[in-house]
Amino acid sequence: MSEDGHSSRTRAAEPIVAAYRERILYALAIIATVVLLPFSIGNFVKGYPLIGAVSMAVVLIFVADAVAIYLRRRLPVPIPIAFVVIMIALVIAIWGRGLLGIFWTFPAILLFHFVLERRLANLFNLTLVALVGGVAFYTLDTDVALRIVAGQLLTIVFTNIFSYVVEAEQKKETEQRRRLGLLVRATNAGFFQWDRASDERVYSGRLKEMLGYAPDADTSAWPPLPEFMHPDDRERRVSRFQEGARQIAQPGVQRLATGGDFRLRHANGEYLWVHAQGLFIHDDDGRVARYIASLVDVSERYRQQQDLRRSHNQIEVQAQQLRDQNAALRDAIRVREEVERIARHDLKTPLNSILAALRQLREQRKPDARERDLLGMVEGAAYRVLDLVNLSVDIYRMEQGAYRFSPRAVDLTALAESVARDVRAHADTKGVHIEMRVEGGPADTQRAYAWAEEMLCYSVIANLLKNAVEASPDGATVRIEFSQAGGQAVLRMRNDGVVPVSVRRSFFEKYATYGKVGGSGLGTYSARLMARVQQGELSMHTSDEEGTVLELRLPALPEGAAPVLHGAQGVAAPATVHDARPLPELRVLLVDDDEFNVAFVRSGLPSPPLQVVTAINGRAAVAAARADPPDVVFMDLEMPVMNGFEAIGRIRALEVEAGRAPCKMIAFSSYDDDAIRRRCVEAGFDAYLSKPAPRERIHDILHAVADGRALPEPVHPRKPRPSGPDDPVDVDLDLLGALPRFVETRTVLIEELRAALLAGGRDAVLRLAHKLAGSLALYRFEWAADESRAIRQAAADGGDLASLAERCEALRRHLGAFKLRDRRDDGRAPQAAAGR
Amino acid sequence: MAVRRKLLLVDDDEAIIEFLNVKLGGEFDLMATGAPEKVLPLALDGQPDLVLCDIDLPGMDGGDISAALFANPQTRGIPVIFLTALVTPEDLAAQGNQLAGRAAISKQSPIEDIAARIRASLA
């Protein structure tokens, strides 16, 4: 087979005469012998012995060449000698027989052309024409001689044209074959061919290589291809081949066999996977005459698939393990979060009670010095625990990404000094000295500021300094340096202790602790969390030579930000002005299930002038409000039987029922996060107080209620409502196109709202009214938006739903006949009535 | 030429989406969905520069969406602004124009304020 492209390359370089020279010469020799011999003998008979002799010589040369070619030997008479002999014979024949001799020149021209290389042939032939022409002019008429020469020249030209065209075609085909060969080689495929008539099997060189043999290995003794197949594949492949080979098709048709993968035995005894694609070639009677198949080695692919399957199985096992671990982890996290949440609330409640009790003790009797110290210690401990609980709440918010970072100018030097004072007693016991330095001068003359939160910075620096003092060897120095770099305020704290190698990687991880009895593992974790929440970073470097350096980076002050100057205590107390007037005469309802809290708050609400009623849960509060409507309610949120949210709804409903002005409701809870505050807003609370609330704060609220002022922590300052449904609507011109559809869909929503109100579906009412309020507000239907909100609020407050249905009718009328005012053309009269 | 920033609008009310399309479409490239569960896939796929999200949505509320975006490292940095009808602009101002630790703006605010807030968050 020539698919490897080797054999065709030799032919491509030579003209057709060279490629077929021997065959042409062989054929011409036989023909010339057969044709010339009678004429040669005839010349002897007719009395032309010389002509007979030279023609016989030519015949003998042809015979000798034909025999040599047949025997695959070298030509006994070289072509040039044969040419000379033929020339002599022709000249003698023309000389002797005239025109009759001329006829032999034409086959001679063809002979030379096809036997010799083209240039040599043309040289010989032109020589022949010159000689023959000379003799012809000498022996024949000029007219005849001219025509003979012209005829011979034309013959030479035509043969040249013919061979040129053939060679060009052959060159083209050769090039195609060469490209095909390259292509086949590029596919790296081996070929197998089977011929039905001869049962001959041909293996290409590449196929032999694939099977581990030399490309030119003799395959004549090889068994049939199925013998090379893996026993498991053999029957399937053979039956498939036989099924294809039995089919009858149109004569000459080439039909693709079913391709597939199977294994072939390699010379080394192993098997390789091949992909085979076969072609059945049908002969003139429609039966399969030949089968050609290409085979590609796909062992690597199978190996990869096997590896992949193995990996997949391993991954599946690991994934299942991970799923199990995740499930366990989720359970653990859920339990932990639940415990933490409960702990935060449940810890704060008794702590508040302790603090309240301590304050009562202080107030009810004048403690002596020792008692004061003891009370101070207990209070200090309670506040530390409370701080810890609050810190855990903040950490939780930071972890959830819900912490609100409110930066301001913070004097890091003042904070560090304050912390240093706190830990000095501890440092003194170890003889540890604390030294501070601000870049450019000593700490007592220079200040270092950051754009951060004071409490968070305090916590971070306190954590770092306490740890540094603990880690320092006795008598060593902890150095704190402040500097500015790259728009950041940098605090570096260095001590001579070294963090053990085993701890370095987990130094900032949660719950990672080392060498500290009772350590929570939250200290460094929360310090870094706090640094990051403030858009800063906290890092640690430790080595035997340098000791340990904790580096805190925080944003530097933005341009124009003024630092806040602190007093000697470092951290400034919040600036509040307490209203010290006598308390007003108000009816106060105090609702809390914790008797200590009730006792504490109650103790700060003197009666007279106040009338204070207490209730142990929401239900009792509703009963109390019904019996004696209060002016102010302080309502705990988490209570058994009925919680604060349900209670406020009931109380608001009572007020609507009785036509009373709503009292002021203050949510009062240990929960202190944005979600709870938001929920309180939705539920209709007027203010929120987080426990423990200072007595002064409660008094300020009472003064504000009595004065009719906004509460100190307002959640519901209302803007004045538009005057009414007849006011023009400020729809933007850009929205005019969308307006008809908007009005249409809102009308449908209003109808749904009305139906929900009549059916008593409170959830649906809340949802629909909320949807209406939001969209109407955006489209500037301000009255309608306010009205929708009012409906929602009334429904949320537990109001009678059916009575609100009338307001839906007003909304529907408004949308049906509103007046439109162009917002870009403010000041003009309404342009259009755009009702439906 | 300045690059147009991409916003993801989340609201289950088509009228709101239509309104924001009309008013903000000239300045921003907008994607929108009313299905809260599609917000994370859309944000991962479209990588918006900001998510403008209603709070009261069916199934998940705005807080859940915000938490889901924050929990994914690829969407953690995308600022979220709550657009809510629950609170008036005055209430929000009293709370530092934020709800649950995230920037928020009332649906009662003029669209100019909403657009200005978005620009400020993208700056």
Describe this structure in words.
- The complex is a heterodimer of chains A (836) and B (123).
- Chain A contains 26 helices and 21 strands.
- Chain A has six domains: 7-182, no CATH class; 188-297, Beta-Lactamase; 303-382; 405-555, Histidine kinase-like ATPase, C-terminal domain (Heat Shock Protein 90, 2-Layer Sandwich), CATH 3.30.565.10; 587-693, 3-Layer(aba) Sandwich (Rossmann fold); 733-833.
- In chain A, the strands form five sheets. In chain A, strands 1, 2, 3, 4, 5 and 6 form a six-stranded antiparallel β-sheet that branches.
- Chain A is α+β, with helices and mostly antiparallel strands.
- The longest helix of chain A has 66 residues, at 299-364.
- In chain B, β5 (98-99) and β6 (102-106) form a beta hairpin.
- The longest helix of chain B is centred in the C-terminal third of the chain and has 12 residues, at 111-122.
- Chain B has helices at 14-24, 39-46, 62-71, 89-94, 111-122; strands at residues 6-10, 29-33, 50-54, 80-84, 98-99, 102-106.
- Chain B has one domain: Response regulator (Rossmann fold), CATH 3.40.50.
- Chain B is of the alpha/beta class.
- Chain B is built from five helices and six strands, in the order βαβαβαβαββα.
- In chain B, 42% of the residues are buried.
- At the A-B interface, α21, α23, α24 and α25 of A face α1, α3, α4 and β5 of B.
Q: TL;DR of this structure?
A:
The complex is a heterodimer of chains A (836) and B (123). The longest helix of chain A is centred in the middle third of the chain and has 66 residues, at 299-364.
List the helices and strands and how they pair.
The complex is a heterodimer of chains A (836) and B (123).
Chain A: H1 7-12, H2 16-19, H3 21-45, H4 49-70, H5 79-97, H6 99-102, H7 105-115, H8 118-139, H9 142-187, E1 190-195, E2 200-203, H10 205-210, H11 231-246, E3 254-256, E4 260-265, E5 271-282, E6 288-297, H12 299-364, H13 369-400, E7 408-411, H14 412-430, E8 433-438, E9 441-442, E10 449-452, H15 454-471, E11 477-485, E12 488-495, H16 501-504, H17 523-533, E13 537-543, E14 547-555, E15 587-591, H18 595-603, E16 611-615, H19 618-627, E17 632-636, H20 644-658, E18 664-669, H21 674-683, E19 687-690, H22 695-707, H23 739-759, H24 762-778, H25 782-796, H26 801-816, E20 819-820, E21 832-833
Parallel strand pairs in A: 8-11, 15-16, 15-17, 17-18, 18-19
Antiparallel strand pairs in A: 1-2, 1-6, 3-5, 4-5, 5-6, 7-10, 8-9, 11-12, 12-14, 13-14, 20-21
Helix pairs in contact in A: 3-4, 4-5, 5-7, 5-8, 7-8, 7-9, 8-9, 12-13, 12-18, 14-15, 15-17, 19-20, 23-24, 23-26, 24-25, 25-26
Chain B: E1 6-10, H1 14-24, E2 29-33, H2 39-46, E3 50-54, H3 62-71, E4 80-84, H4 89-94, E5 98-99, E6 102-106, H5 111-122
Parallel strand pairs in B: 1-2, 1-3, 3-4, 4-6
Antiparallel strand pairs in B: 5-6
